[in-house]
Each structure stands twice: as C-alpha cells, then as structure tokens.
Design goal:
5 helices, transmembrane helix, elongated, signal, 64% helix, 117 residues
Length: 117
C-alpha cells in the first residue's frame, strides 16, 4: 500500500466519520421537526464513500490474467494436491467406471495376457 493511497483512504474515512457524526447530531437536535437528513450530509457521505473506494483501489495489487488452462495444468503437474475441487471430484459413493472397465478388460483377456501399465 503506497503512501498516497493510505492518505486518500484516511482522508475518506475522516470525512465518513464526520458525516456520521453530523447525521447523529442532526437526529438528536432536530428529531421532532424534520425526518430527512440535510443534503450536505448526504453529499458528504457519498463523496466520502467514493474517496475511500478510490484509496482502496489504488492500494490494491495489480490484477493477474486468468487462464484456467494454465491453472489446471499447474494443478495436474503437482499431482492434484492443491486442487480446491478435489472433494467434489472424489465421489466415494459411486463406482470408478474407468477402473471397472480396466478390470473387465483384464478379465476378458484372461489370466495368460500380461497388461503393461
């Protein structure tokens, strides 16, 4: 987080706190006469939110491009240990069709044929 983004964020938070305090004081002092907040408090709140947002965006890291193919390739190279969807892909209550096909193919070939793996 750079110095400028911290200053901008801090300035926006101070403005937001001031707008909140002003709204509180307005409701305490004028609770019977007016129901709506004055326009200057509303504008100050909106400007403070925009300034805080700009400060937070300035402090964020640069976005990295998304490439699902590269991400999936890295997971496969690591053996799938870091796969966040591993629990969804392992279905313990279901048959492993590929393993059952291999068992059936081995059974059909008979015990005399050795299969290279």
């Amino acid at each position: 987080m750079s110095f400028i983004s911290r200053v901008v964020t801090l300035f926006g938070l101070v403005l937001l706190a001031h707008a909140g305090y002003s709204a509180h004081e307005h409701t305490v002092l004028f609770n019977n006469t007016r129901l709506a907040l004055p326009q200057d408090i509303i504008v100050e709140t909106l400007i403070a939110v925009v300034i805080v947002s700009v400060g937070l965006v300035l402090s964020a890291d640069k976005l990295k491009p998304i490439s699902w193919r590269d991400w999936a390739g890295q997971i496969e190279q690591n053996g799938g240990a870091r796969n966040p969807y591993l629990s969804l892909e392992e279905r313990y209550g279901f048959w492993d069709i590929r393993a059952k096909r291999k068992e059936f193919a081995d059974w059909m070939r008979g015990p005399d044929v050795l299969v290279k793996e």
